[in-house]
């Protein structure tokens, strides 16, 4: 047997602390618990990923600026399609699921990281090329997952915490996460299957703390070599995680569903009922925060409407009110997960305004706002959005004039449209033919 010289021996031996095999002593850790948590996390993350990518498609980034905030996406935009206007509640559903499920997964994610933390301190850190690749994929998976959760939660809670950059950051982070997850699942699927078959979930849920024993040792390195006495059963651990997720749902989901749960939507800054009255529903950005001045929306306000051929009309609010008025029952749904109930909007159809300055089917439209600062002061809408009979330049809501914070003197409202693309304080509509596709 070859003996190591003292320096090499010191190098081969793990350093003190978490690198030592006996440092991690919880008898709950093992392949089975990690696999159960991983399976739950995987299912939830697939929901969050699909709804997140659908949210990106809802912004119609294929139309280019100002909708597209991810230049150079290239092949990553292969799945994009023309976002539909029906069903009108689709974006409310998908983005509500995206945020609610994402927040509900936070306790599961933390528990999963706790269960595998010994693997982050294996010694030596790299044993072979395959081991190195596995470690890199794990690092990318953990890093991208934490990044997506952190940026998402911050954006929901703080509103535009990454002005002009949240969307590309979150979009590209999602693709890094998907790539790392695919590699990780491919490397682990066999091991997870064996771990889940090795123990019965029903039996574990019946096992109290006093009869909780460590899992048999295996090559994963998760099972402690010197386990401590159990202070909690696996049933209790899973119950705590489940209770944490349920709590996150209760204090979040009301921002999307409305009803009694809206009052307890504590994690939804703009999810609770703002008060009574026709304009008593959620406001994401106020007139003051966006630099709207009283003079801008006074008697001198005018709406300029331009057509594809250069035809132009300038209308004041009185002239707009004299045009045929139409009503649509539509919610406002935001990327942050909150949404309103159906509000009764009244105004002029976008298609009718397009017909006044053009001929033939209504084309797409470039909508510009009076706002002087902040994101989303303009948006491009597709032809299908303009032609939908429920798409309005709204002048009133629930029988009353729009409030200033809801977009007075006029705002756009389009079915199944992200809230920030229902532009407020509209000053210019430029109807134009659109080339290309999503």
UniProtKB/TrEMBL annotation:
The Oxidoreductase molybdopterin-binding domain, residue ranges: 300-435
Biased composition (Basic and acidic residues): 203-214
Ranges where the record places region Disordered: 203-229
Keyword annotations: Membrane, Transmembrane, Transmembrane helix
UniProt xrefs under SUPFAM superfamilies: Oxidoreductase molybdopterin-binding domain (SSF56524)
Gene3D superfamilies on file: Oxidoreductase, molybdopterin-binding domain
Ranges annotated as spanning the membrane: 32-54, 74-91, 97-117, 138-158, 170-190
InterPro entries listed in its UniProt record: Mopterin_OxRdtase_euk, OxRdtase_Mopterin-bd_dom, OxRdtase_Mopterin-bd_sf
The protein, known as: Molybdopterin-dependent oxidoreductase
Organism the protein comes from: Streptomyces hazeniae
């Amino acid at each position: 047997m070859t003996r190591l010289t003292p320096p090499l021996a010191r190098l081969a031996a793990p350093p003190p602390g978490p690198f030592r095999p006996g440092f991690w002593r919880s008898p709950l850790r093992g392949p089975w618990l990690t696999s159960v948590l991983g399976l739950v996390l995987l299912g939830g993350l697939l929901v969050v990923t699909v709804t997140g990518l659908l949210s990106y498609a809802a912004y119609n980034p294929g139309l280019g600026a100002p909708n597209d905030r991810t230049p150079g996406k290239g092949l990553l935009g292969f799945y994009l399609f023309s976002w539909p206007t029906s069903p009108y509640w689709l974006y409310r559903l998908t983005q509500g699921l995206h945020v609610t499920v994402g927040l509900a997964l936070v306790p599961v994610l933390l528990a999963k990281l706790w269960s595998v933390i010994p693997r982050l301190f294996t010694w030596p850190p790299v044993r072979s090329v395959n081991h190195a690749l596995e470690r890199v994929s794990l690092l990318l998976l953990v890093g991208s997952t934490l990044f997506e959760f952190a940026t998402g939660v911050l954006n929901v809670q703080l509103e535009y915490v990454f002005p002009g950059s949240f969307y590309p950051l979150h979009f590209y982070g999602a693709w890094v996460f998907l790539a790392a997850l695919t590699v990780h699942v491919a490397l682990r699927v066999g091991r997870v299957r064996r771990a889940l078959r090795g123990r019965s979930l029903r039996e574990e849920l019946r096992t109290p703390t006093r009869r909780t024993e460590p899992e048999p040792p295996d090559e994963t390195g998760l099972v402690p070599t010197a386990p401590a006495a159990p202070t909690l059963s696996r049933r209790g651990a899973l119950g705590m995680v489940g209770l944490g997720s349920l709590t996150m749902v209760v204090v979040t989901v009301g921002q999307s569903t409305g009803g009694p749960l809206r009052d307890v939507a504590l994690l939804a800054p703009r999810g609770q009922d703002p008060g009574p009255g026709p304009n008593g529903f959620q406001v994401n950005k106020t007139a003051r925060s966006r630099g709207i001045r009283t003079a801008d929306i006074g008697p001198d306000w005018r709406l300029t409407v331009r057509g594809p051929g250069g035809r132009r009309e300038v209308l004041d609010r009185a002239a707009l009110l004299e045009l045929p008025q139409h009503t649509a029952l539509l919610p406002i749904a935001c990327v942050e997960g909150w949404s309103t109930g159906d509000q009764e909007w009244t105004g002029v159809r976008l298609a009718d305004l397009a017909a006044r300055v053009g001929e033939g089917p209504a084309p797409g439209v470039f909508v510009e706002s009076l706002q002087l600062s902040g994101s989303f002061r303009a948006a491009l809408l597709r032809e299908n959005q303009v032609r939908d009979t429920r798409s309005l330049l709204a002048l009133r809501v629930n029988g009353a004039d729009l409030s200033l914070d809801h977009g007075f003197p006029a705002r756009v409202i389009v079915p199944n449209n992200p809230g920030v693309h229902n532009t407020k304080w509209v000053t210019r509509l430029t109807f134009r033919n659109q080339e290309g596709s999503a």
